[in-house]
Write a structure and sequence with these properties.
26% helix; 4-stranded antiparallel beta sheet; elongated; alpha+beta; 4 strands
């Protein structure tokens, strides 16, 4: 991966709430100029002092698998070409 861009799309909760949900979009650009978008959600609970106590991230693992598999194929082809 060459470039990673994170964009927060929406935040639900926070403020007076003890929990926030953050919807984000990662744009990944490989060294071969392939672009991948990965959407994910973070759940962030806060304690009574307003401090973050945990962060849980949820994403579509199947969507992540495709660029990883393509990367493995590219590496294998480069290795075989040597």
């Amino acid at each position: 991966m060459e470039t990673l861009r994170l964009e927060v799309k929406r935040i639900i909760g926070g403020g007076e709430s003890c929990l926030a949900a953050i919807e984000s979009l990662d744009t990944l650009i490989t060294r071969h100029d392939k672009s991948y978008n990965v959407e994910f959600v973070d759940l962030v609970p806060f304690n009574s002092q307003g401090k973050i106590v945990q962060l849980k991230e949820f994403y579509d693992s199947g969507h992540i698998q495709r660029p990883l598999e393509e990367h493995e194929v590219e590496n294998k082809q480069a290795w075989q070409a040597k």
